[in-house]
Amino acid sequence: MSKDIKGSAGQPGPGWGAFLASPKLLYWLLPALIVMSVAGTLVPQGEARDAYAGRFGVWAGLLLGLRVDDIYHSWPFTALLALLALNLGLCTWRRRAGFNRRRDVLTTHVGVLVTLAGGVATAVLGQRGSMPFHVGELRDRVESAAGAFTLPFSVRLERFEVERHDADRHHLTVIHRKDGWAETVDAQPGVPRPLHEGTASLVVVDYYPDFAMDEKGPSTRSQSPNNPALRVEVSDGQGKEKHWVFARFAGFHANPNSRYELTYELAPGRIKQFRSDIEVLDGGWVAGRASVSVNTPFRWKGWAFYQSGYDPDNPDYSNLLVSRDPGVPLVYAGFLLLCVGVAWTYVRGGRQSQGGAP
Amino acid sequence: MNMTVFNVAFAVSAAVLAVYGAAYLFAVPAWRRAGPWVLGAAWLLQTAFLALRWKESGHVPLSNQFESMVAMIWGLVGLGLWFRRRENQDWLVPAVAALGVAGLGVCALLDTAMAPLVPALQSNWLLLHVAVIMLGYSALALSFIASAIILAGFGGRRQPDIALALDRFNERSMGLGYMLLTAGIVLGAVWANEAWGSYWSWDPKETWSLITWFVYTAAVHLRRTHRWQGRRMAWLAVAGFVFVLFTYFGVNYLMSGLHSYAK
Question: Do B199 and B190 contact (CB within 8 A), yes or no?
Fold first, then answer.
C-alpha cells in the first residue's frame, strides 16, 4: 500500500475496484474497527439478556439489537474484518508488480491475510469445550456453547491437586468475655502464642482440615480444607480451657460458660499450581497418562487439554478445557510472516536513512 | 537492598536533570557533556535493580505493574542512549531523563512488594511476551517525546534541519515501537494458545493492544501513502501514545479480564 510502489504495473484505476484496493478504504476501516473494538470492552460481552436490561435500562434493546453484547462475533464486525481482508488482498494483488521492490511490505500484507485465513479456519473447523471432572470419573463428552460433542477416546481424572507456595494460615480471634479485650493471632499447630501482653496464651493442639466425627472420635476425611476445625487450648492464671473452633460454623460447639470466646478464619496459602493427572483410554485400554497444569497442556490425537478451572469448595473437582483447532498452523504462519515483514521494513528504513537507496 | 538500589537509580536519573539545569543556569554549556554519562550510570543502576530483583524473587521481574514499568523505563533510557549515540540526537538525554524520572516516580507509588508467580505467569513466555511489549512501549515513548518537542514548536520553519531530524527520529522510533508491538502481540497470542487453548479471546488487554496496533498501523500507512510528517504525524504519535497508556494502565485498573493479575 506504499506510495513508492504506486505507478507500477497493476496500478489501480478509477471505480469501485480501485476504492476497494485503496488506502482510503483502510482509513475508513481502521477507525470503524477501533470504535467497535472499544465498544466491546465497555459493554460486557456474552451475558444473559436480563443482565443488560438491568445495567443499561431502555438502551438494552438497542444494544442487543446491534449485537453489541457479542460484538466480536456479530455480522457488522465480521463484515469489517472481511472488508479489511478484501482491501488488503486487492491492494496486494493490484500492486503485485511493484512489490518486487518492496518484498518487505508484501510479506507483511501476506502475513495479515494468512493470519485472517487462519482465524476463519478456527471459526469454521475449530472445536472447543469443557470437561468438568470429579476424581475417578471417566468421560468422553465435551460440553460446549455450540452443543456437546464426543471425543474419539475417553479421559479419566486420576488425581487433582492444588499446590501452594505457602502453608495455610489460621487466624484466631480471642475475646475475654469478662474483661472485654480481644486479640487476633496468626496461629500454627503446636506453636504457643502469647495473648494480652503475656497474661494468657494460646496453642493449637490439633488441626482437622476436613473435620468429621466417627465412632473413634474426631478425624479428618481428607487433607483438603473442606471443613477446617481446630482444637485450641487457652491458658491464663485461672487455668486452661479447651475449645473447638470451626472456620465454616462460627459459634458451633461453643461453651457459653467459658472465659473466652474464639472465632476462626482460615487463610489458604497462595496457589502455586493446579495439576490434573489424567489417563487416556483409547480402544479399550489405557493409551497414555499425563499431568495437565496451567501453561502445560496435554495433546492427544489432535486434541489439546488445558487446566482451566477448579472449585475451592470441592477438592475433587477439576475442569479441563478441550480444544482442536486446525487454524493454528495457518495463524502461526501468518504471525511469522507478519513479524518478518514488519522487521524487514524497519531494517530497510534504517539502511535508507544511512544513505541507501530511497 | 533491592529498593535502595531503586532509590539510588531514581536519584541519579534526577541528577541528569540537575546537570542540565546547572549548565543552563550558570551558562556553562560544557557541563552538559556529563549528562549522557550520568544517564548511563542511572541505566546501569536500573539494570542492577532489575537483576537483583530477579535474583531475590526467583522469577523475571515482569510479573506486575511495578516491575513491568521499571522495565519499561529501563528500556526507554537504554534506547534513548542508543539512539543518541547512533543518530547523534543530544536532546534525547534530558528528555529521556525527564520522562524516566516521572516514570520512576509513578513506580514508587505502585505496590513494590515481591510475590510468588500465579500459575498463569509460570512460563518462559512471560519473559518473551512482556519484555518485548515493554520495549515496544519504550520505543513508542521515544516517539511521543520527539512528537511533544515538535508540537512545542522546536524545529519549526526557521530550523528546517532540526525539524527534519526530529521528524526522522519520530519515524524511526515509531517504526521500532510498531515492530516490537507487533512481535509482542504475536508472542502473547502464542502464549495464550499454550495457556488458555485459544490464541485470541478478545480479553480487554488483547483488544486494546490490537486497537493500539490499529492506530500505529494507520500512522505507518499515512506516512507512506499520504506523506504525513512533521506536526501532523506528531499529533498522531501523541494520540497513539495515549492509546498505549490506556492499554497499559487504564485496562489494568478499569477493566477485568484474563490479564487482571497485571495490576
Answer: yes
